[in-house]
C-alpha cells in the first residue's frame, strides 16, 4: 500500500455568504486544475456565480481525498472500516513579528534574522504571547455526510485546555467567532471551509502590514486521516490546509505560482527529478518539454493583459516565431527571447544583482526585462529585490528551450507529482512575496518540507494537547510547522494589505535604494511696492498721493491704477518666508510602474455589464478598461466592503484560444458615480471641457435598497451583521508603500 492524502497542501478561501433559506448554495469547492474555476458542491461543475443573491462571496472549501497510488480510497471500498479526519486550524499573526518585507528571511543568512534586524513584535506590550493566537484546538470528523463541525468556542475539545479566541466584541470591525468548518461528503471525503472574512480590533488601524489588537480569520494547519481497515490495521496520513483570501480572477494564473515554488524546492532540495537536478547542479543534457515546461509560462504572460496594463510583455506571447520549433535555425530567436528574462539574485554574497535591473539594452534598444512584476522587496532599503525573476528551475527549463534542448510531444510525461497537489497550490501566488496573498517567502525555505510538496509537521496528531501552540518558534530554523505557521507572516488584517498590494513605483537607477526621504519646503513670497500716482496732464509738482500696497504674490500691481492715472514706481521690497516643511519616505525617482500579483489582485480590468440596468448601476459602458478597486477609497472601506469587488471571468471559455475576461458580480449598488469637471479642480473656467470620473461608497442604505432586489438584500445583510465602524490612528496611515494615492 502507498496511501497518501491529496492535495498534500490544500487551499480553502474565505467568503461571507452564510447559510441561505432559499436552497441557494452559499459554498463552492476549490478547483482541481491550475487555472480552473471553483466547483459547485452538488454537481462538481464549474461555478456560474461566485456570490449569492445578496452579493456575498461564497466560501470555497478544499476537498481532501485518500489515494492508494493512483486509485482513490473511500468509505465505499469493501476493505475500509472507517476514515477519521482531524484538522487543527490556527491564526498566529497577532503573536508574530511586524511585517518588514524580507527581514527575517533566513535564506539571506543569520544576519537577516528577526532578532538581528531588530524587527518589532506585533502587540509587543502583551506578555502572554500565547493568548494572542487564535487557537480553537483540533476538530475530528468521520463518516459520510457527517454533521458539520465549526472551529468556534462552542466546540473546543474537552481535552484541549489551550483554546484562545480574540474578543467577541471588538471596538472596531467584526468579531471572529470561527476559523472555519469541517464537513464530509457522501463518500467520507473531508471538506475544509475557512472563515467569513471577519477582522476586528480594539485600537485604530495603523498600518497595512499589521495593527496591534487586530485579528483576522485566515488560518492554516495540519490535516490527518486515520484509515482503519476491516482487519483492524490502521494507517495515519497527513497533509496541510491554508485558508486564504478569495481568488478574484481564478482562471488567470501567476507567472510563477506556488506550484512552481514547491516544484523548485522539490527539484533542488528533495531529489524530486534526479535527471533534472542532482548533486547541487542542473543537468544541461536534460530535455525539457515544450507543452509541460514552457507553454504554461507563455500562456500566463498572455493572460496578464486582462488584469494589468503590460504592453511591454506583448512580444512574449505574440508567436512572432514558432515557439515549439527546436531547430538550430530558430535558435537565435529563442535565445533573444530568453535573454530578456532577468536572472535571480543570489541570496548571499552577491556582487551582481540582476533583479535590480529594469531595462535590457540589447542591440541599442530598450525594453523592460521579464517578468514585469515588482520583486519581493521594492519597498524598503533592507535586503532589496526590486524586480521579479523566475525561480531557478523555471529559468533553467526556459534556458534549455532557448538552446533547443526540448521536445514537443502531444502528451508529455508528467513529473511524479499528484495532479491534485499541483492544482491546489498552483492557484496561489509563488512570486513575488511581499508578503504575498495566501502565504509568503517562508515557503521558499526547504526546512519547511518533509519531502517534495509535503509540509513537515512539528507536533503530529493531537500533538499540542499538553502544551498548546508556541508563539515564538521560527519553523524556518527546522523542526516542522505548527498550526498557523504558514500564514502568520501575512498582513493583519489581510484586507488592508489587499488595498495596498496592487502596484508599486520602483526606482531603477540605484541598486541598493528603494526609498529616500523627500523633503518639501513651502515658501511665501511677499512683495511691497511704493508707487506715485499722477493724474494725466499733471506735473510732478502736483500734490502727491503715496500708496503702500497690501502685500501680494500676484503680479497685478499695474492693474490697480485707474485708467486715467499714470504711475511712477518709487521702489519695492521682496521677502521670502519659509512657512512649512514636510519630510516623507518616497520611492526614489526615476521609477517604473510595476505590478505585484494582478491575477490575485487585479488592477486594470474590462467592464462587463451588458444590460441597460447593469450599465445604469455601473455607470460605464461595457468594454472600458477601468480600475478594479474603483469606489473603495481607503483601508477601512476595504476591510468592510471587500466582498463588493468583482470577479474576473472568461466569458468565452468555450472557445479555446479566444479569451474574453471581464468583470462580473460587482456590487454596483453600493457605489455612486460623479463626473467632476476639470475646472472644478483647477478653478479655471476654460478647463470645463473635460471631466474626471469619481466612484465612491454611498452610506445611505435607503438609496442602496431602492436600486434593485440585490440592493435590498445587501441592506438586509448590512443590518444583520455586527460591524463597528473602523477608526484610523490620529496621525493617519500615511502614504501607501507605493508612494502615491493616485488611481487611474
From TrEMBL:
UniProt-listed CDD domains: LodA
UniProt-recorded Gene Ontology molecular function terms: L-lysine 6-oxidase activity
Transmembrane parts of this sequence: none
Region of interest (Disordered), ranges: 128-147
Domain spans labelled L-Lysine epsilon oxidase N-terminal: 6-243
Domain of life: Bacteria
Domain L-lysine epsilon oxidase C-terminal: 371-514
GO BP, one annotated term: negative regulation of single-species biofilm formation
InterPro entries in the cross-refs: LodA (IPR033797), LodA_C (IPR041173), LodA_N (IPR041168)
Protein name: L-lysine 6-oxidase
Amino acid at each position: 500500500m502507498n496511501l497518501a492524502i491529496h492535495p498534500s497542501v490544500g487551499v480553502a478561501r474565505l467568503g461571507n455568504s452564510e447559510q441561505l433559506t432559499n436552497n441557494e448554495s452559499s459554498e463552492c469547492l476549490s478547483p482541481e486544475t491550475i487555472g480552473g474555476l471553483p466547483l459547485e458542491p452538488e454537481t462538481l461543475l464549474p461555478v456560474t456565480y461566485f456570490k449569492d443573491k445578496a452579493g456575498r462571496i461564497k466560501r470555497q472549501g478544499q476537498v481532501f481525498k485518500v489515494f492508494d497510488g493512483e486509485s482513490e480510497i473511500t468509505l465505499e471500498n469493501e476493505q475500509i472500516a472507517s476514515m477519521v479526519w482531524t484538522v487543527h486550524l490556527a491564526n498566529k499573526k497577532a503573536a508574530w513579528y511586524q511585517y518588514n518585507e524580507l527581514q527575517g528571511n533566513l535564506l539571506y543568512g543569520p544576519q537577516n534574522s528577526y532578532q538581528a534586524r531588530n524587527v518589532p513584535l506585533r502587540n509587543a506590550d502583551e506578555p502572554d504571547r500565547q493568548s494572542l493566537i487564535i487557537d480553537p484546538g483540533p476538530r475530528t470528523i468521520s463518516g459520510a455526510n457527517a454533521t458539520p463541525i465549526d472551529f468556534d468556542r462552542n466546540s473546543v475539545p474537552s481535552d484541549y485546555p489551550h483554546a484562545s479566541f480574540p474578543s467577541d466584541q471588538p471596538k472596531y470591525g467584526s468579531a471572529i467567532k470561527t476559523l472555519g468548518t469541517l464537513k464530509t461528503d457522501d463518500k467520507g471525503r473531508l471538506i475544509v471551509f475557512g472563515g467569513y472574512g471577519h477582522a476586528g480590533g480594539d485600537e485604530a488601524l495603523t498600518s497595512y502590514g499589521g495593527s496591534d489588537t487586530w485579528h483576522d480569520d485566515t488560518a492554516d494547519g495540519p490535516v490527518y486521516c486515520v484509515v482503519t481497515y476491516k482487519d483492524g490495521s490502521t494507517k495515519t496520513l497527513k497533509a496541510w490546509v491554508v485558508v486564504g483570501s478569495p481568488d478574484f480572477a481564478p482562471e488567470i494564473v501567476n507567472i510563477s505560482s506556488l506550484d512552481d515554488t514547491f516544484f523548485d524546492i522539490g527539484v533542488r532540495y528533495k531529489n524530486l527529478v534526479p535527471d533534472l537536478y542532482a548533486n547541487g547542479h542542473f543537468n544541461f543534457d536534460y530535455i525539457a518539454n515544450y507543452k509541460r515546461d514552457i507553454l504554461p509560462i507563455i500562456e500566463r504572460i498572455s493572460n496578464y493583459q486582462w488584469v494589468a496594463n503590460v504592453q511591454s510583455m506583448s512580444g512574449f506571447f505574440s508567436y512572432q516565431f514558432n515557439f515549439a520549433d527546436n531547430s538550430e535555425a530558430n535558435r537565435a530567436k529563442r535565445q533573444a527571447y530568453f535573454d530578456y528574462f532577468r536572472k535571480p539574485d543570489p541570496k548571499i554574497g552577491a556582487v551582481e544583482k540582476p533583479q535590480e535591473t529594469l531595462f535590457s539594452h540589447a542591440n541599442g534598444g530598450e525594453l523592460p526585462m521579464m517578468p514585469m512584476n515588482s520583486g519581493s522587496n521594492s519597498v524598503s532599503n533592507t535586503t532589496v529585490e526590486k524586480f521579479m525573476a523566475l525561480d531557478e528551475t523555471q529559468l533553467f527549463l526556459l534556458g534549455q528551450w532557448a538552446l533547443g534542448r526540448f521536445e514537443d510531444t502531444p502528451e508529455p510525461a508528467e513529473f511524479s507529482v499528484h495532479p491534485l497537489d499541483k492544482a491546489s497550490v498552483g492557484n496561489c501566488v509563488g512570486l513575488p512575496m511581499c508578503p504575498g496573498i495566501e502565504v509568503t517567502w517562508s515557503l521558499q525555505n526547504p526546512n519547511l518540507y518533509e519531502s517534495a510538496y509535503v509540509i513537515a509537521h512539528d507536533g503530529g496528531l493531537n500533538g499540542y494537547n499538553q502544551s498548546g501552540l508556541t508563539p515564538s518558534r521560527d519553523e524556518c530554523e527546522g523542526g516542522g510547522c505548527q498550526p498557523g505557521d504558514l500564514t502568520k507572516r501575512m498582513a493583519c488584517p489581510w484586507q488592508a494589505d489587499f488595498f495596498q498590494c496592487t502596484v508599486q513605483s520602483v526606482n531603477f537607477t540605484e541598486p541598493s535604494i528603494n526609498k529616500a526621504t523627500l523633503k518639501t519646503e513651502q515658501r511665501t513670497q511677499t512683495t511691497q511696492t511704493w508707487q506715485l500716482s499722477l493724474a494725466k496732464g499733471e506735473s510732478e509738482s502736483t500734490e502727491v498721493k503715496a500708496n503702500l500696497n497690501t502685500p501680494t504674490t500676484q503680479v497685478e500691481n499695474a492693474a490697480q491704477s485707474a485708467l486715467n492715472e499714470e504711475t511712477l514706481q518709487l521702489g519695492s521690497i521682496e521677502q521670502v518666508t519659509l512657512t512649512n516643511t514636510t519630510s516623507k519616505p518616497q520611492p526614489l525617482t526615476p521609477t517604473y510602474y510595476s505590478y505585484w500579483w494582478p491575477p490575485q489582485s487585479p488592477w486594470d480590468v474590462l467592464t462587463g455589464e451588458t444590460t441597460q440596468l447593469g450599465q445604469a448601476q455601473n455607470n460605464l459602458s461595457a468594454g472600458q478598461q477601468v480600475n478594479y478597486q474603483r469606489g473603495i477609497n481607503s483601508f477601512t472601506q476595504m476591510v468592510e466592503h471587500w466582498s463588493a469587488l468583482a470577479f474576473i471571468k472568461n466569458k468565452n471559455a468555450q472557445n479555446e484560444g479566444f479569451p474574453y475576461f471581464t468583470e462580473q458580480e460587482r456590487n454596483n449598488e453600493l457605489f455612486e458615480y460623479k463626473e467632476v469637471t476639470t475646472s472644478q479642480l483647477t478653478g479655471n473656467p476654460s478647463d470645463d471641457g473635460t471631466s474626471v470620473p469619481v466612484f465612491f461608497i454611498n452610506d445611505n442604505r435607503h438609496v442602496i435598497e431602492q436600486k434593485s432586489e440585490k440592493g435590498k438584500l445587501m441592506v438586509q445583510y448590512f443590518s444583520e451583521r455586527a460591524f463597528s465602524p473602523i477608526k484610523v490612528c490620529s496621525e493617519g496611515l500615511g502614504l501607501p508603500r507605493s508612494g502615491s494615492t493616485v488611481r487611474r
